[in-house]
UniProtKB/TrEMBL annotation:
One Gene Ontology cellular component annotation held by this UniProt entry: exocyst
Any one biological process term the GO annotation gives: Golgi to plasma membrane transport
Originating gene: EXOC6
Family, per entry: Belongs to the SEC15 family.
Signal peptide: none
Superkingdom as given in the UniProt entry: Eukaryota
One Pfam family in the UniProt entry: EXOC6_Sec15_N
Record has Transport as a keyword: yes
The protein's name in its UniProt record: Exocyst complex component
Positions of the Exocyst complex component EXOC6/Sec15 N-terminal domain: 62-231
Cell membrane is among the record's keywords: no
Domain Exocyst complex subunit EXOC6/Sec15 C-terminal: 424-772
Keywords: Exocytosis, Transport
Length: 815
């Protein structure tokens, strides 16, 4: 026992406690916890040291006793087990030798085993390492099998982006996102790819939109070629249809122009030329698909559809196309100057709508029929306004006709693509009126040139060939003229057949505009007749009136003009037959318009007749102005004045020319000339500037009037009854007789009586002339002798003048 001595230090106590604990735990109370035992010991020690002063000593004594008792028990136990222990030791000693041998053998075996296992260990380590590598490789392969398709698809995406296969790239992106990325989402490279896809989508949108912009710019530049190709195709189809229709007409014996071989030949030449040109250019006509690459639109549409942003693309496309439509519909300021300007305008519009129609049929939803209809209606209103404005500046009928042909081809082309064009054909009727106006202006110039070049003399012909040439140009029929031998003359001048030909040419020109307007023969007939009426009643009539009023046109020219209008008037029925042959519309149809040529030429003839009367009177005035009377002469010359004889000779020659005029015209002209001459002579006597007239002057004046009366009685123009023409000078005759006979008593006595001898003598006229003679008598010797010899006659003059004044005053009061 480690406890010794009488007193114990704390260390000793501690050691004892530990020793006791071990004993208790090992031998007595194995199940008693150490903490519990320590607690009991501590409590015991405390009670030993704290309760009584001698408790420690007693405790130690008891403890010693306890120890001794334990020692005895131990000793007994050892004695009890000693023999077994010795036997065990002996056995152990015996085994020791065997154990050493075994140890040597084990050691040797271990050594040999170790030596033999070194290579196995090395190989085992290699195998382990290989197995680890194999496992790692297997893991890597498995992971790579997951990653490689992703990388391959992403590489494919990059290649598609490089090759600009953007729609395929978008599909690849969808596969990556939906199939491949979920398998490798834990890897960082996958996250980088996922983050890069939105940027790629935006790049694709931007690139496709850029391609679309380039496409829109391209079709804007190529709209002219596209429209030109489309219009050329439409024109070829139309030409083929016309040729087919013509063949059918020939087959069934129907000709639109029945009696007009010239027009047929002209149409055949034009048609042949058209077919030759078509054959030459057949390979050059390309379709819209060949002219334009629409793949950018398809790609962009598919891309935006794949991105779910199709509406944005549609809105952008339509907005840009509307802007382009406004640019296309904006014409150049000088478009009306040439047909190329109109052609370029039409081809651009056709190209625009051909592209829209193609987009409508090859895509779904990008362009709708409602959208194209709205766009076309907007464009059609603008087109009509532009054509109406610019066509108003056209003054050349050929340009207007080419414009009409362009509009027809333009309308037919767009109609073939399903666009309504009725308003364009309505516009053509407005342009037709303008075309007629330009034709009228052109033909006004033609008519003026014909009138300027005409010599206004009958057409001379010297042989049968010349006669047939004139007859082929103008429908003239006169059996008497045919019977005459050559040389002979047609009654009309050169302007008549020329005008007739030009009227027919006008009808041809007017007919050209009516072609391809999809109108019936009745409507075309009505158009032709109305335009021809305008030509006759307005243009030709105006030219004739201007011609008649020109100052250099003399009486002979006016007479020929009247003759010409008469023959033109007779030719109107042939013009009606000419129109009937063109349109196959009978003149007996209820609504057929009649030509107003009869009234036109009658008006022109009446104007010419009036101008003849005017110019004849002007010529008479020119001769009368040459009169040089000596109003104070005492005796007449005994013969008529020279100016008057010249005037009468002139009138005789003029009235001989009038024999070709209708009798009434010549009679009216003759009567008008005589009346005007009589009036001029009367005014000469009563001129206020003439202050004095002698009786000799009256007698000389009477000789001139006698010559006028002789001229009237000679019947310069046949057809007058009795002395009708002489009555033009009755006022002068009665006035001169009154003064020559000096028969005032009879005049005053019979004044106002229907049977008066001097019924046509006005008191005022007589008074005026008598006053002029009274002033002369003061200086005239004859009257001086007369006053001396016969003062009663002087008083009679005074009395007559008073009575005449009273008559004049009575007339004024009565008025």
């Amino acid at each position: 026992c480690p406890l010794g001595g009488d007193s114990m230090s704390l260390d000793t106590v501690g050691m004892c406690m530990s020793y006791l604990e071990n004993i208790v735990v090992q031998y007595y109370r194995p199940s008693l916890s150490v903490k519990r035992f320590r607690y009991v010991l501590r409590y015991t020690y405390r009670s030993v040291y704290d309760d009584q002063p001698n408790a420690h000593k007693k405790f130690m004594e008891k403890l010693d006793n306890c120890i001794r008792n334990h020692d005895k028990e131990i000793e007994k136990m050892c004695n009890f087990h000693h023999q077994g222990f010795v036997d065990a030791i002996t056995e152990l000693l015996k085994v020791r030798t065997d154990a050493e041998k075994l140890k040597v053998q084990v050691t040797d075996t271990n050594r040999r085993f170790q030596d033999a296992g070194k290579e196995v260990v090395v190989q085992t380590e290699d195998i382990i390492r290989c197995r680890i590598q194999q496992r790692n490789i297997t893991t890597v392969v498995e992971k790579l099998q997951l990653c490689l398709p992703v990388l391959e698809m992403y590489t494919k995406l990059k290649e598609q982006m490089s090759a600009k296969r953007y729609y395929s790239a978008l599909k690849t992106m969808e596969q990556l996102e939906n199939v491949y990325f979920p398998r490798v989402s834990q890897y960082r490279f996958c996250q980088l790819m996922i983050e890069n896809l939105p940027k790629l989508r935006e790049d694709i949108k931007e690139i496709s939109m850029s391609d679309l912009k380039d496409f829109l710019e391209s079709i804007r530049k190529h709209s002219n070629k596209i429209g030109e190709a489309a219009m050329k195709q439409a024109q070829q189809q139309k030409t083929f249809s016309v040729a087919l229709q013509k063949q059918n007409n020939v087959k069934f014996g129907r000709h639109m122009y029945i009696n007009d071989r010239i027009t047929e030949e002209r149409n055949e030449i034009v048609l042949k030329h058209t077919f030759e040109e078509e054959d030459e250019n057949e390979e050059e006509v390309l379709t819209v698909q060949e002219l334009v690459d629409f793949s950018p639109v398809y790609r962009c549409l598919h891309i935006y559809s794949a991105l779910g942003d199709e509406e944005t693309f549609e809105n952008y496309y339509r907005k840009q196309r509307k802007k382009q439509a406004r640019l296309v519909l904006q014409p150049q300021s000088n478009m009306h100057e040439t047909v190329d300007g109109y052609r370029r305008y039409f081809t651009q519009i056709v190209g625009f709508f051909v592209v829209e129609d193609h987009i409508l049929h090859v895509t779904q939803g990008l362009v709708t029929r409602a959208y194209t209809d709205e766009l076309w209606n907007m464009a059609l209103s603008k087109i009509i306004a532009v054509l109406r404005a610019h066509s108003s500046y056209c003054t050349d009928p050929d340009l207007v006709l080419e414009l009409k042909n362009l509009i027809v081809i333009f309308a037919d082309t767009l109609q073939g693509y399903g666009f309504p064009v009725n308003r364009l054909f309505d516009l053509l009727f407005e342009i037709r009126d303008q075309y007629n106006e330009t034709l009228l202006k052109k033909w006004a110039t033609v008519f003026r040139d014909i009138f300027e070049e005409d010599n206004y003399s009958p057409i001379p012909i010297t042989n049968e060939e010349e006669y047939k040439i004139v007859i082929s140009k103008f429908p003239f029929q006169d059996p008497d003229l045919e019977k005459q031998s050559f040389p002979k003359k047609f009654p009309m001048s050169q302007s008549v057949p020329h005008i007739y030909i030009q009227v027919k040419e006008f009808i041809y020109a007017s007919l050209k505009f009516s072609e391809s307007l999809h109108r019936s023969s009745t409507e075309i007939d009505d158009m032709l007749r109305k335009s021809t009426n305008l030509l006759l009643t307005r243009t030709l009539n105006s030219c004739l009136l201007n011609l008649i009023r020109k100052p250099h046109i003399g009486l002979t020219e006016l007479v020929q003009i009247i003759i010409n209008t008469t023959h033109l008037e007779q030719a109107c029925k042939y013009l009606e037959d000419f129109i009937t042959n063109i349109t196959n519309i009978s003149q007996e149809t209820v609504h057929t318009t009649r030509l107003y040529g009869l009234s036109t030429f009658k008006d022109a003839r009446h104007a010419a007749e009036g101008e003849i009367y005017t110019k004849l009177n002007q010529k008479i005035d020119e001769f009368v102005q040459l009169a040089d009377y000596d109003w104070t002469m005492s005796e007449p010359d005994g013969r008529a004045s020279g100016y008057l004889m010249d005037l009468i000779n002139f009138l005789r020659s003029i009235f001989q020319v009038f024999t070709h005029l209708p009798g009434k015209v010549a009679q009216t002209a003759c009567m008008s000339a005589c009346q005007h001459l009589s009036t001029s002579l009367m005014q000469m006597l009563l001129d206020s500037e003439l202050k004095q007239i002698s009786m000799g002057a009256i007698q000389q004046f009477n000789l001139d009037v006698i010559q006028c009366e002789l001229f009237a009685s000679s019947e310069p123009v046949p057809g007058f009854q009795g002395d009708t023409l002489q009555l033009a000078f009755i006022d002068l005759r009665q006035l001169l007789d009154l003064f020559m006979v000096w028969d005032w008593s009879t005049y005053l006595a019979d004044y106002g009586q229907p049977a008066s001898k001097y019924l046509r003598v006005n008191p005022n006229t007589a008074l005026t002339l008598l006053e002029k003679m009274k002033d002369t008598s003061k200086k005239n010797n004859i009257f001086a002798q007369f006053r001396k010899n016969d003062r009663d006659k002087q008083k009679l003059i005074e009395t007559v003048m008073k009575q005449l004044r009273s008559l004049v005053n009575g007339m004024s009061q009565h008025t």
